[in-house]
Amino acid sequence: MTNYTLNQNIELENTNGLRRVVTTPEGRAFGNVPGREILLDPAYADASALTARNRAKAADHRTIEPFGGGSPDPIRNFNGLPWFVGDTDRRIGIRTRPRINKNEWTVFAVVKPEPREDGINAGYLVSNVGAEGEGELHLSIGWPRSVLSALRVYEQGSSNQRISADIDFASRSIPSLVEITFSIEYGLKIFDGGDLVAENPDDKRPLTYEVAPTDSLWFANGHCRGGISGLYNLDLSKEKNAGRRASIVNFLKQKYGIS
Asked: How far is it, in rounded angstroms, from Cα 36 to Cα 158?
């Protein structure tokens, strides 16, 4: 994805031979927002090769890790749109190794979790599963798998909630757009469909690592569908970033029919 500045209503003469940049709808929504670190899009994934392109970086292809003995396609279409899919027979995790600004970040995702009862506490939007260390703070975000009643930020794995938002994923027939923001100035916030639904301004603890000791797995342990999702190294809830955040939220809500 190309960084760009869009200047409109400018007339140029003698444009023959000039290169033209054609932007995609995603490029217009995401391309003018700095700090991109992860941008996963199932339309840019290869099910046969089990790879997903990280559109935030040039030539960065991430591995889709299958778990379980089944063999359903990890990329499938629903209502005309491609999705990352983990289900009962074959769970997935998209391996990434982001460099995170410990002091401010934003995670966003279009996701539709499904219930799963198998003794595991949480399905993860993103987590450094298996990297737990005493007193460490990791990027770990997920939901209770059996009831799908909340979105939570954990200190690590699925232990010790830092913030929780009551979101009834189970009752929804359409996907959800969730955003989780953090900065050492404003603490943690959770947005659902663009609306602020939970905040913890008292937890201003930065993450332990810029680069975690293990891969961050997206959609891990979950029975869910995942759409466009990503990580920015800035707090998009800050007032100065309101326009940037709006461009992302409005695009994703329109694309996925989220009201």
From this structure: 26
